[in-house]
Amino acid sequence: MAFTVGILTLYREKSLFFDGAHPGPDLEEYARLKICSNRVTWALGHGDKPTKLVVRGHNVPSTLRLCGLIYDLVRGNPTALNSGVNTNWDQLFADASSDYDTKFNPNRWFSVYANGERLAALSEIDPAIDMLEAKAKGNEIDEIFLKKMATEITDRRSIRLRHDSTAAIILNIMSDGIRCALIDRRPGKNAGFSFKIQNPPGKRIRVSAAIHMAADIFEMQNLYAIVSRVEKVLSGELPKSAMPISLDHVEAIQLRNSQLKELIKSGHDTYDISYRPAPPPYLPPLI
Fold this sequence. Notes:
The structure is a single chain. This protein has helices at about 60-75, 90-95, 100-105, 125-135, 145-155, 205-235, 245-270, and strands at about 5, 10-20, 35-45, 50-55, 110-115, 115-120, 160-175, 175-185, 190-200, 270-275. The chain is α+β, with helices and mostly antiparallel strands. The chain has two domains: about 5-170; about 185-275, no CATH class. Strands 1, 2, 3, 4, 5, 6, 7, 8, 9 and 10 form a ten-stranded antiparallel sheet that branches. Helix 6 runs antiparallel to helix 7. The longest helix has 28 residues, at about 205-235.
């Protein structure tokens, strides 16, 4: 039976719903309902009708890692995403979270949907998310869709909406390897880059390996932004009040950075990986 793997896309989404009967500024603190998450859409499964998988999560790296684990699960068990199957989701959620993430992101959460049906969740999920996914059934959620759903999920007839959605990760399986595009957030602007893992002679790259590589790179990007801000405070370029984290947290980031460098270096030692236009500056010397 053929195994179908579509294009994996991770969106950063924020949807703010405002009470239309009470005019005011469309600022986040005035929103009647706020839905923020990273949302992956991915066609995955065996046979002619793959499952429309949606994975939501609190941050990009952990959400990606969960997708990699789900890929390996479904690859080995065609029924893993079927309703009623006894899948150990708690273990998958734990495996997707690093020790650093577990300690410093206590409010982390995940939810997983197959063709609109929620299979599992870590922590309490806003019922509005389940309602949206049940109606979307794995398809795109855009402003037009949200406007149609606004009355149902807010219990208000008059609603104003502000919706922002940006693709942060696009992973595509090609005939000669796997390409992954990432949006690199930098001060004052966003810049995209991509990496490609070439298939070894006579073999194919395991999709989950590319997903985990993307997660490691993205996490290092996030930590790099935090460390850069800390360095500016310590150098006096920014006031001490701008320190984003504690010094204990800084030490934890340094340890996590070392772990990520080893993981990324191991990937480069194992596979032929190229970047376009060039590796971002926060990666260790690899080429």
